[in-house]
Every structure is written in structure tokens, then in C-alpha cells.
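Query form — protein Mycolic acid cyclopropane synthase

QUESTION: What is the three-dimensional structure of this chain?
INPUT:
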Amino acid sequence: MATEALNPKKEAVVDLWKRMELELVPDEEIRKLMKIVLEKRINWDSKPSHHQQLAQTLDFTKSLRSMKMATEIETLDAKVYETPSSFQQIMCGESIKESSGLFTDETISVEEAHIKMLDLYCERAHVKDGQSILDLGCGHGSLVLHVAQKHRNCNVTGVTNSLSQKEFIVEQCKKLHLSNVEIILADVTTLEMEATFDRVFVIGLIEHMKNFELFLRKISEWMKQDDSLLFLENYFHINLAYHCEQIDEEDWYNGYIFPSGSMVMPSASCLLYFQDDVSVVHHWILSGSHFARTFEEWLKRIDSKIDEIKGIFESFYGISKEEAAKLTNYWRVFCITAAEMFGYNHGEEWMISHLLFNKN
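ANSWER: The C-alpha cells for Mycolic acid cyclopropane synthase are given below.
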């Protein structure tokens, strides 16, 4: 029996992915293609009136309450989530902050911008020496190490599901002579612990969740009853709330960078509808241009040491030169497309939100 041929549109998408992996699509062409994706997303999810847009947001938030806390764990690609720290240091800088920097002017470096954003987190969360701090989804420990160094009397706990990230942080603590850090290797959605904390940080993690109600309820159980605060950074669209899944057969972006449908893009108001266990104390918004510039700077850093990165991938994953080149190109495309998304409409569409909650 003959194998059924791919739909021509799907075949074109598969071919585009292959050409991107082989670096056969010029950067400017990728940028143009991404702008088309973004315009299609806006047209697809935008409603003709504010009343209908609000109704869509309410329906979306209601649907999240009926879902599992997260659905993507089974679909994660180890080559995307379990990355070598040496590569991350090249791309993000020494602090390995894997989220947006804060660019207060045109002259500062990406590493300086990362430190400024870490300082802003601490300022807005009212971090003080002597507090107990929990960082959920701590990555390579940029915030954990930042707080632990500045506030030596704080006990800082980080949670990551990556063994290589934990090992990196532990090694950094030895180099910096830090004895006030504990790293827990666990999936945050299934983690159980009795400890409670003065401050809880969630940076760039809630987008990987589905049921925000269950996630925030779980976090509230780790907050002390009195004077505890949760600081949450998330990315959002100013009006649209949607699952990051393919719109149609020609959508090459959703499903290429992350598993299709595994992530959520909330709207600006989406999280305000989940105050069952925590309540909003303050809400700030930052232009997406900060993250757009972060990704552009990351791209420059990749390109400056591209051969070294390919070698790192070969050694870390035990893969061929060809596969290492494809993975390097994946990260280049990741930076290009994200820069276009957060830079769209001068950073006024896809943006950064900071929310401060207390425990109910």
C-alpha cells in the first residue's frame, strides 16, 4: 500500500523547518515570515468589539480551570530544556539569566541589563536580609545567586527539574562561598514540601502551566501566613489570550520552537481572574522592547562564538557535527523569532508583566 502523501501545505512547512535547520533561510526572510505569523495571530484571535474580546478572555480563563496544572512534561525536548551551562553563559552572559533584561538606556550591555532586572525583582518584592526566599523554576540560578550574594542572611531555595542546572548552581555556590542556598531537583507541579517562605518568585514559568488556579493554590501553600509575598513575572499579549498552538497548516512557528499547545499566552488581564488563594497587591507592565533587545543581544553573542557552541553541543549531547549545527540554528531562529514577537508594534503588543500577590 502506497504511503499517503503529505498535504502540500504541511509539506511546505516541513521543508521550511528543514531549510531553517540547515541555515538555508536568510535571517531577514525569517523575520518577514515571523511578522506574517504575528499578524495572522492578531487577526485570528481579535474580536470586532471590546465586549466580545472580554467574553473571549473570560471563556479562556474558565477553560483553564478545567485543565491539568500542566500538560507539557511528557513532550519536552531534552535538547531544548536540558542545555549545557557553557552554552547558556555564551548566549545569556555570566549570570545566565534566561529571561528579559532591563535596558534603561542604549549603552548598557545585556549582562548589565540582566543585573538591573534582578535588582528590580528584589525591589518590587521588598526583599530584605534575613528572609526565606523560594525561586520556582530557578533555571541556572541567576536570581538565587543574586539574592544569596546580596543578602547573606537570607536562606534561598531554588527548584529546578534539570540536573545540569542544579549541578551548575551548586558549583557556583562553592566558588562564591555561599552557604545559604539549597537547590531542590523536582517537577514543581508534583513537588510536596512543608516549608513556607517570606518571598516566592515565579519568573517565566507560569506560561508553561495550564491551570493557573491550581498552580497559584499550590504556591500559596508555600507562603507564610503573615506578610508573605509572591512576585510573578510573565509574558502576555495586550488583548489576546490563547494556547500557543498552530492556527492552520501553514503555521510553521507554533510547534517548532515549543511543542504545539504546551504553552499559554495570557492577556494583560488574564491572571487577575485567578485570585482565589492569592490577591494582587501591585501590577506593573514593561515594554516588550526590553525582551526584544535581549534576544537580539543573545543572537549576537551566539554568532560571535558559533563554532565554539557547535562543539559544546557535540560534546554535551554526544551528537554529530550535522546535528550540532542544526541545534545551533534552532537557537538562532529562537532568538530571531522571539525578538520579532516582543518588538512587534514597538513592544506594545507582546509585553512583560510583574505581579505582586499576598496570601489570602
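ADDITIONAL NOTE: The mean pLDDT is 93.
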